[in-house]
Every structure is written in C-alpha cells, then in structure tokens.
User: What shape does this take?
Amino acid sequence: MHTSLSPLYEKMQADLQGLYNELKDQPDVVLNKKLAEGKWSVLQVMHHLIIAERGSVAYVKKKMSFNPEYTKAGLMTGFRHLGLKFYMGVPMKFKAPEVVGDSKLPDESTFWETVKLYNTTREELKELLENFPPELLNKEVYKHAMAGRQTIKQMLVFFDRHFVRHRKQIRKNVKAYHFVA
Assistant: This one.
C-alpha cells in the first residue's frame, strides 16, 4: 500500500475497531431499535456505511478493469473535495442517496453478521489499496455522487469523514437507549 494511503486506512481500521468495542456487548434487539419512525437503527447505520464503501470500491475496481484515460486531479478536484468535507462536517441531517438509502437497508440484522460484512468490505478496500498503481494516485479514479470525481486518497478521506459523521449518529442512539458503553 502506498505510504500516502496507509495512515488513512489504518486510522479507518482503528476507528472501526473502536466502534465494534463500543457495541459488542449490546443485544441485537437493542441495536435494531430506531429512535423514531424514519430514523435508522444502529445496525442500519452500519449497513449504510458498508453499502457506501462497498459500492465505491466496486466502482473503482470496475473502472480500473478497462484501463480508461483518467483526468489528472486539479484545482476543481480540490474544490469539490473541500465542499464534500464541509458537507460531512455540517451538523444537519441530509437524505441519503437512494443507492445507499432506506430501501437498501435491512429491517433487522445481527451485530456479528454486520461485523463480518464490514470486515469483508474493508478487506476488499485493503486489496484495492495494496494493488493500486502509484501512477494513478494523482488521478480522478473515484466518482462521488455529489462531489464528482476524486482521487483515491480523497475517497479515503470521504470514507473517514462519513464514518465519523455516522458514528455520532450511532452514539446518539446509544445514549438515547442508555446502552452499556
């Protein structure tokens, strides 16, 4: 894995392990509870994160499979990335795109099945990063639904910010149900 990507991936893995540690002693029935109608349960939030990461990795792998011409990242790429980072930091609720939204989330799941799926997703990401050609590091290989084309590193920054944003949502659920923390 390229040295510019490794620290981000390792941070993401540490954050994910921290989340697992926070939730592992909670019963599935509690992790499947919603704060209100139209809200997501803890496990639905985790599935949303999994779907977003898995879809992004699949997109990059598919795109790389036919060796297209990539645009070099430039000033506009940076502006779009900055806008995405700002969006991820805004403490307002936004409706998720349908591809990662309500209809794609399970009504119920188990914590350990969700952990297994998330670990598989992160292994797929790790494989992509370990085999990522260094000559593409400065190219727009990833396409975010709102922010458009981004570099692989910017994709990782998005994953990290997205996770942090939703971890707050998970902790809000934990606090509301007085989960063991």
